[in-house]
Amino acid sequence: MISIETPGDKSISHRTLILATLAAGPSTVQGILRSVDVRATAEAMRQLGASIREEGDETRIGGQVQWRAPEEEIDCGNSGTTARLLLGLLAGLGIQAVIRGDASLSRRPMDRVVYPLQAMGARIRYLESDGRLPLALDARRSGSLRSLRHRPRMASAQVKSCILLAGLAGRIRVEVSEARATRDHTERLLDAMGAAIAVDRSTDGGAVVSLEPDRKPAGLSPLRLRVPGDFSSAAFLLAAGWLGAGEVQVLRVGLNPTRTGLLDVAREMGARFDLVEEGFEAREPTGRVRAMPSRLRGFDVDSRALPHLVDEIPVLAVLAARAVGVSRIRGAEELRLKESDRLAVLAGNLGRLGVRCRERADGLEIEGTDAPLAGRVRCAGDHRIAMAFGALGAAPGCRISVDEASCVSISYPSFWQDLERISGSEAA
Ligand code: S3P
Q1: What is the pairing mode between strands 97-100 and 74-75?
Q2: Which helix (H) or strand (E) holds 281?
Q3: Fewer beta carbons under 10 A from the terminal one: N or C of the chain?
């Protein structure tokens, strides 16, 4: 059996780099993910005046930043989390800036964060097309934002975190009501820093998150933590294990229940795994998960399950391709707005490999097969598409190549080496 320590959690890494700059002193953090997306956030924070220094596995982030308007445009690359969280921070600080991204990010909707920020009084203009990057924030007197109660129309941790950051940096009260609770890393980190954050969970899976302006004379506490491994990266390795590439154990991986919805579906599919919770890092439960080759059954996933497995739909699609029976993913129209239109790209690639797959407006219907699968996958520059088909390609009887294998550097630069360790095969 192969044991692999998954690289640091991407969501927590972005948040740590941003939140630590608002602390009263320097933070020291281990295990921040070193990937292209997270580098975009670190670079943006440096442009705004933050000090971020990397030494080995450690990152030192200065607090009490002397904020400045960036001289150059801020380029978020492919990273939606960078763009949306940064917008909240900049709106709260009242800093003038232009934000842009690559072609994929420039197709993704920004109105979901721009609208609530404008309702708070932020001045934001789209520079090319409505609702999309690039956009410009105008300077504003600090302390002049209005407090906000917001109920996003879609389940989105990025929208929630954007508003919390605007409230924190703008020193106003904000409240976000979620019909279905999304990943709560921002809340956990704010709590660790001593911010006045409250989370009221309802029995039907919703949550109301509120943040009061910071009144502590000492300010927010610096962060001292180790970022847990990214469950969404581990998911591809577990999938390779279940698909029969070889038994694998992922170590010190984050097991925050708002992220591990895949395991509930895996259980329903008959996937064999052991999970051992080992403790807490960064206020997040962590542990190890061991996946064994399994005979899989089809599954049903709907919108209620989605927030806790939103990044795992590509993994579920390739598991479905090898499961007995038909699997259905519904209520997942948000997947069309990710790094690629994941429903279309998954359906196109599964079809190309010979898997019967029907694309619906809000999901997929996939008929599993044990026939040999072979072909070249077009991943549309989407890291999670590349890794999902990498995992499928490592399964016995499959020969799959991926057209832009290097795009895994967005979130998991060592993915192909780790996969190779499990399967011992030529994966990419
Ligand atoms: C993320 C939230 C999710 C997820 C993305 C990272 C985050 O997006 O898909 O990969 O770090 O907050 P949405 O909040 O838009 O669903």
Answers
A1: parallel
A2: strand 272-281
A3: N
Rounded to an integer, what distance in angstroms lies between the CA atom of residue 44 and that of residue 42?
A: 5
Query: Who contacts 137 (Cβ-Cβ below 8 Å, separation ≥6)?
Result: 87, 90, 91, 95, 96, 97, 98, 99, 122, 123, 124
Region of 398 (left: φ > 0; alpha: ψ -120 to 50; beta: rest) is beta
Report whether 289 contacts 253 (CB < 8 A).
yes
Ligand 1 pocket, residue 41 CB under 6 Å: no
Q: Find tokens 């967005």 and name the residue.
A: 410
Q: CA 380, 386, 387 angle in degrees (round to 5)?
A: 155
Mutate to test the pocket of ligand 1, among 11, 339, 384 (most ligand atoms within 8 A of CB): 11
Task: Tell me, in angstroms, the distance from the centre of ligand 1 to residue 165's CA.
Answer: 15
114-155: pLDDT as tens digits? 999 999 999 999 999 999 999 999 998 766 899 999 999 999
Is the pLDDT at 426 greater than 50? The verdict is no
Per-residue tokens: 40 = 């975009």
Give me the pLDDT at residue 140, please: 85
How much helix, strand and coil, in percent to the nearest 5, is found in the chain?
35, 25, 40
Q: What domains can be seen in the chain, in order of their start residue?
A: 10-216 (3.65.10.10), 231-423 (3.65.10.10)
What gap in Å lies between CA 285 and CA 358, rounded to an integer?
37
Q: Is 161 in the pocket of ligand 1 (CB under 6 A)?
A: yes
- CA 183 to ligand 1 center in whole angstroms: 8
Q: Give the model confidence (pLDDT) of 92-121 as tens digits.
A: 999 999 999 999 999 999 999 999 999 999
- Residue ranges of alpha helices (H) inside 289-360 are 313-321, 342-353
Q: Where are the beta strands (DSSP E) in 93-223?
A: 97-100, 124-126, 135-137, 148-150, 174-178, 196-201, 207-212
Q: Ligand 1 centre from 274 Cα, in Å?
A: 27
User: Measured at the alpha carbon of residue 225, what is the angle toward residues 222 and 226, in degrees to the nearest 5?
Assistant: 150
C-alpha to C-alpha distance for 100 and 201, rounded to whole angstroms: 35
Q: For 50-86, what is each residue's pLDDT tens digit?
A: 999 999 999 999 999 999 999 999 999 999 999 999 9
Q: Is 11 in the pocket of ligand 1 (CB under 6 A)?
A: yes
